[in-house]
Amino acid sequence: MVGLFLCATFLCTTLIFAQSDNSAREKLIASLNALANVQLAERAQAVAKVQTRADAEKRKDLIRRKILDLIGGLPKHPSSITAKQFGTLSGDGFRIEKLAYESLPGFWVTANLYVPAIGSGPFPAVLLAPGHEATGKQSQYSWGVNFARNGMVALAIDPLGQGERLQYLGSDGKSTIGGSTGEHGEANVPTMLIGENIARYFINDSMRGIDYLAGRKDVDANRIGAFGCSGGGTSTAYLAALDDRLKAVGVACYITSFQELLPSVTGVQEAEQSIPHFIEQGLDFGDWVETFGDNIVDRLDVFGHT
């Protein structure tokens, strides 16, 4: 009987603390959201003042400077890029080159390149950024095949901590962190301690992918785009805002607004999606689009669209 009483007391105490913790968490989130809404309203006022092309260009430059400052800038690297090929696979109307390229010295990005089987190019090209799937680039197979069959080169890359790019390996060769993207948050801890954000490295990986594509003889460097969904949409939006070489971009399942997002989530998202001070600096999802979107009609015309 005494044991039963102690068990019941422990259970009730645990529930009380749990309810207290949940209540405190909810109050904290509500307080932060209220602060964010004030800052988002201030951003709306600033955007409303953009009335001319000159205003838009000025804001574009301001946004880029803010983003680069928040993520700790971008790494410097040589103009050339080192790549290795590990074999090829042939399919109906396409071939796959298994390769890796160096985004930083000794830091390799594993990738699959889908190349049209007909013609020698130069072909337009697209960088494919996977979502938050543990399989990484493998999840882009159908996209890569269809792009190649339609006359485009497609480079599907492994994001940091996914596919073949696991960083925290145990003796069994598997990730010690767990989850399809658990390594994102772990890798972000040391970067934040030195004033960076892990997004810096996602962006750099993508930019070096564009470097690789632009350096191939079978790719038209003036017709390169990018596509990504969900987590891949995140890194694609980042890339589009900061790399003027892209002529067309497709971002799926990412662009929204913080006024819509904040009431629907109970905390931060993936490490690379939660850039500290982003809202405080007067930024929202729309800024990724606006920073790329200037002169969008001219960009699409490069691919023959109207």
List the secondary-structure elements in sequence, H or E: HHEEEEHEHHEHEHHH
- Whole-Å distance between the termini? 80 Å
Q: CATH class, please?
A: Alpha Beta
CATH homologous superfamily descriptor:
Alpha/Beta hydrolase fold, catalytic domain
Do you know the CATH architecture?
A: 3-Layer(aba) Sandwich
Shape type: globular
Strand order of the largest sheet: 1-2-3-5-4-6-7
At the fold tier of CATH, the topology name is: Rossmann fold
How much of the sequence lies in strands comes to: 15-25%
* Helix/strand class: alpha/beta
Largest sheet: 7 strands, mixed
Q: How would you describe the overall organization of this protein?
A:
This protein has a 7-stranded mixed β-sheet with strand order 1-2-3-5-4-6-7. The protein has a single domain, classed as 3-Layer(aba) Sandwich (Rossmann fold). The chain contains 9 helices and 7 strands; from the N terminus they run ααββββαβααβαβααα. α6 packs across α8. It is globular and about 55 Å long. β2 and β3 form a beta hairpin. It starts with a helix and ends in a 5-residue tail after the last helix. The longest helix is centred in the first third of the chain and has 47 residues. The N terminus and C terminus are likely disordered. The protein has 306 residues and is α/β, with parallel strands linked by helices. 43% of the residues lie in helices and 20% in strands.
